[in-house]
Design a protein that fits this description.
about 350 residues; mainly alpha; MetI-like fold; 14 helices; about 0% strand
């Protein structure tokens, strides 16, 4: 006598549609582990990779410390009790050298004093970090935004628009940045202020940001254009175009979310380039005014005291080196974390 499927299930104690005991056991064993992997978003995967990367943790901690110092500069000044332009000439000897050991290092002046001027090195370095990060982050935001807009338009539209934007990019790349900055920054300042007028800090900072933005967008634009060219013929783009999506929707809702990873990496590696660029221009005397704390100007003045006061060049030099190194290491770690093929 044959049994129907329902009668067979009742006789064996199985419910219709229920998995077999072996399959159920496998699912019970693999379920929590697989659910933990499948359930994680791309952002969670990136954070997990960064947490496993010791280089990312150390460099990120160092960068966070620098950012906190820059943000808390006024509070540090109040607690420290010294202003960046305050002079302590009574602590200099007859030759202008700081009294005491290691350039005048003491409990009141942690990194010593500037030879010949008597200004506190520590508080000027704190404000120098603030100035460098302000210029670097401001210029990086502008150049990244400009490069993304131009690159995504050129890559998606193609044709004449792509040719014009590519030609402008090639012209900007052909112009030597350093020579252009040496010529434009002083001329631009004299256009609005006389040779004897004090240039406001905001104007000097804005001028440097504009100069960096005039050249820095080209790399991001080329990167974004290449990414968009490889995506514009994909199925999801064709589907959105067939559905009647407008140009803005296609550019910023369909294409941009798929290329944000290389843009973020490019931004993280652009910031340290602007930190060193600002220091180089200040070193050459065309950056910020003398009254504004800057690593480049401090290092320039310290060259004359390398043998007599090595601490003067040591503290600013090591600080900007650590700042730029931390940015570069974190940028490399972020690139590895965003790479789906990375083994980290």
């Amino acid at each position: 006598m044959s049994l129907s499927p329902g009668e067979f299930a009742a006789a064996t104690g199985d419910r219709p549609g229920a998995p077999s005991p072996d399959v159920a056991d496998d699912a019970a064993l693999a379920g929590p582990r697989d659910a933990g992997v499948v359930g994680r978003s791309p952002g969670q995967l990136i954070r997990a990779r960064l947490r496993r990367d010791r280089t990312a943790l150390v460099s990120g901690t160092v960068l966070l410390l620098f950012v906190l110092l820059a943000l808390a500069a006024p509070l540090i000044q109040r607690l420290y009790g010294v202003t960046p332009n305050e002079r302590f000439t009574d602590l200099l000897d007859s030759t202008g050298m700081p009294l005491g050991y290691v350039g005048g290092v003491s409990g009141e002046h942690w990194f010593g004093l500037e030879p010949g001027i008597g200004r506190d090195i520590f508080i000027r370095m704190v404000y120098g970090i603030r100035t460098s990060l302000l210029i670097a982050l401001g210029a990086a935001l502008i150049t990244t935004g400009l490069g993304v807009v131009l690159g995504i338009i050129a890559g998606y539209l193609g044709g004449v628009v792509d040719a014009v934007i590519s030609w402008v990019t090639d012209v900007a790349l052909a112009m030597p940045f350093l020579i252009f900055a040496l010529a434009v920054v002083p001329t631009f300042s004299l256009r609005f202020y006389g040779p004897r007028d004090a240039i406001p800090t905001w104007f000097a900072v804005g001028t440097l940001i504009v100069v960096f933005a005039a050249f820095g967008w080209t790399g991001t634009a080329r990167l974004v254009r290449g990414q968009v060219v490889s995506l514009r013929e994909r199925e999801f783009v064709e589907a959105a175009r067939a559905a009647g999506a407008g140009l803005g929707h296609m550019l910023f809702r369909q294409l941009l979310p798929n290329i944000w990873a290389p843009i973020l990496v490019s931004f993280s590696l652009t910031v340290p380039a602007y930190v060193t660029g600002e220091a180089a221009l200040s070193f050459l005397g065309v950056g910020l005014p003398e009254s504004v704390p800057s690593f480049g100007r401090m290092i320039y003045r310290s060259i004359s005291y390398v043998q007599t006061d090595p601490a003067y060049v040591f503290f600013p030099g090591v600080t900007i080196f650590v700042l730029v190194l931390a940015f570069n290491l974190f940028g490399d770690a972020l690139r590895d974390a965003l790479d789906p093929k990375s083994s980290r």
